[in-house]
Amino acid sequence: MSLVLDDVTLTYPDGDGRVTALDSVSLAVPPGTLTAVVGPSGSGKSSLLAVAATLVTPDRGRVVVAGTDTGVLDRAGRAALRREHIGIVFQQPNLLPSLTAAEQLVVMAHLSGRRNRAAARARALELLDAVGLADQAGRRPHQLSGGQRQRVNIARALMNDPAVLLVDEPTSALDHERGAAVLDLLVTLTRARSTATVLVTHDRAHLDRADRTVTVRDGRLSERRPVRL
Ligand code: ADP
Ligand code: MG
């Protein structure tokens, strides 16, 4: 398993008490598979991704990424683990306005201490090709469409060849057709790059593409029942 959450509970301070964002959540994601996470707003979907990304430490339970129990790591260790093994795609692309599509990716290699610029550039171009943007490598964000920016965002998350890919509502700003295309792309990349992918989505039209769909409700995770016809 590339990603394991084992009996994870996460609470946040809330006035005088605490709110439970995740309640005894267990989830295992094998490489090369995509698990979709659905559920109402405020149910804990983003919290699940934040815990899996080691950005938030749970009150209880274990998070294992690429064979490493993240509970033994300090802040620097978690940052290194993220750089090496975790790709994160947030809802908004957050691209740097002054950089070209290729440069957005090259920067990732640089931040990871990989100083071989030619190798980074070659990998960036290969990934942009994989997301269908080979001919847009020299464009800056304002010269790209919303769908294209989200593709750059996805390619950037794959720059360091992560074992785990965490994606939070990537299609929420896109129309149905472009959203479906981004989903297709995520499934293809998951297979081709053997990532353990967790996708938070509220777009039910896409769920048939997932290997598995789980529902989060009030911080509790359950397997989504098959639709009864
Ligand atoms: P979702 O992504 O499904 O909308 P979240 O994981 O963002 O849900 O939130 C789950 C619960 O945790 C909600 O009650 C939310 O208000 C609370 N929550 C999320 N992040 C924080 C935070 N940083 N501080 C306090 N409460 C938070
Ligand atoms: Mg959310």
Would you summarize the structure shown here?
This protein has helices at residues 45-52, 75-85, 101-111, 117-130, 146-157, 176-193; strands at residues 3-14, 17-29, 33-38, 60-65, 68-69, 86-89, 164-168, 196-200, 212-217, 220-223.
Key features of this structure:
6-stranded mixed β-sheet, 229 residues, 28% strand, binds adenosine-5'-diphosphate, alpha/beta, binds magnesium ion, Rossmann fold, globular, single chain, 4-stranded antiparallel β-sheet, 32% helix
Question: How would you characterize the overall build of this protein?
Answer:
32% of the residues lie in helices and 28% in strands. The protein is an alpha/beta fold. It has a domain at 3-96 and 161-224: P-loop containing nucleotide triphosphate hydrolases (Rossmann fold). The chain has a six-stranded mixed sheet with strand order 6-7-8-3-9-10. Strand 4 and strand 5 form a beta hairpin. Helix 3 crosses helix 4, helix 3 runs parallel beside helix 5 (146-157) and helix 5 runs parallel beside helix 6 (176-193). The longest helix has 18 residues, at 176-193. It starts with a strand and ends in a 6-residue tail after the last strand. The mean pLDDT is 93. The structure holds adenosine-5'-diphosphate (ADP) and magnesium ion.
Task: Chart the SSEs and their pairings.
Layout: E1 3-14, E2 17-29, E3 33-38, H1 45-52, E4 60-65, E5 68-69, H2 75-85, E6 86-89, H3 101-111, H4 117-130, H5 146-157, E7 164-168, H6 176-193, E8 196-200, E9 212-217, E10 220-223
Parallel strand pairs: 3-8, 3-9, 6-7, 7-8
Antiparallel strand pairs: 1-2, 1-4, 4-5, 9-10
Helix pairs in contact: 3-4, 3-5, 4-5, 5-6
The protein binds adenosine-5'-diphosphate and magnesium ion.
The site of magnesium ion has 2 residues, from helix 1.
